[in-house]
Specification:
Layout (H helix, E strand, L loop, with lengths): L4 E3 L2 E4 L4 E6 L2 H4 L4 E6 L6 E6 L5 E3 L7 E6 L4 E6 L8 E6 L15 E6 L1
Parallel strand pairs: 2-10
Antiparallel strand pairs: 1-3, 3-8, 4-5, 4-9, 5-6, 7-8, 9-10
Length: 118
């Protein structure tokens, strides 16, 4: 069973920054596209940003210009740098490898909670 481990969440004031990390087994990390998702309180999980095996990135409109997704294949770790945080960014953040039509390849990890106070 593939274990995904998210970290880096916390409580931050609006306008602040956080950097999230996601580690996956070295045997699979380099060969997959990866993505960050989030689930706000009382809402469904949504896609935040994706990064392909080759490093191409894509972002949800709500985070464009504020969030940056990156990956380090040597450390088998993916990152999400979040700047200019807003209260509506409050959510549990998860990572996974996106499949086709909204699916994901692996079981969800525990996620990391981000709380932005206004």
């Amino acid at each position: 069973q593939v274990q995904l481990v998210e970290s880096g969440g916390g409580l931050v004031q609006a306008g602040g920054s956080l950097r999230l990390s996601c580690t996956a087994p070295k045997t699979i990390f380099s060969y997959n596209d990866w993505a960050w998702y989030r689930q706000p309180p009382g809402k469904q999980r949504e896609l935040v940003a994706t990064i392909t095996e080759g490093g191409r990135t894509n972002y949800a409109d709500s985070v464009k210009g504020r969030f940056t997704i990156s990956r380090d294949n040597i450390k088998n770790t993916m990152y999400l740098q979040m700047n200019s945080l807003k209260a509506e960014d409050t959510a549990v953040y998860y990572c996974n490898s996106p499949g086709v039509t909204g699916t994901q390849w692996f079981d969800w990890g525990q996620g990391t909670r981000v709380t932005v106070s206004s």
